[in-house]
Amino acid sequence: MRFARFVHAGGVSFGVVEGSEAALTVAEIESIPFDDVRFTGQRWALADVRLLAPIFSSKVIGVGRNYADHAKELGNEVPKEPLIFIKPSTTVIGPNDAIRLPVVSQQVEHEAELAVVIGATGARRVDRAGAEKAIFGYTVANDVTARDLQRSDPQWTRAKGFDSFCPLGPWIVTDLDVSDLEVRCEVGRNPDAMEVRQLGRTKDMIFDVPTLISYVSHVMTLLPGDVILTGTPAGVGTIVTGDTVSCTVQGIGSINNPVVTLD
What we know:
By secondary structure, the chain is mainly beta. Helix content is 13%, strand content 40%.
């Protein structure tokens, strides 16, 4: 199933996205997706609503250097265990929301990623089997990073933590085999002439999804709705005002975000 959070004439709801790509609709559900899915009977054409980030998260956990080619392009060694960091919940934005460039950075870069959403049971000190049970679904993320600040600061909080630095969406897909999916990032100003910057596959992750969940759960309790970003393939590059960034994961969809300068 595809679960979305969206704005409609009556407010904000969660819903299930249904139909073909040419005629998608969203059917409203009574509660959050973790509960038993009960439809209200209300339905809208997807084009008539505004999608938001698909879930509320108490925290977003990033994973650094989880693709060998990305570690290499930045001149880093492949880590021997997952390299994790926190992105504040205030970094999260949804489809078509603007990535806002901070004036203190001259090198903000895109990082297209597969993101994992933790389900109703959460996860605390789980093994691989428990990690797999903790997965609710998957979405697309852009781990926006101020690369110059990442290099200058002894830790990554500032470089990764600016408001708008974690686009998520367009929805959460459940029951998806993520062992070998294409991860793509395109950047440009003309939607008909976007430049492919990143093109990788999830099979090339150093640490797979259950390993990441288990590892993180031994550091901190994962709550329902928490998100783990699984790392980015090679090809990261600078984004500037006027660009649009499109991040896509096969089997899920794309999230597009314009880039603006923070006033």
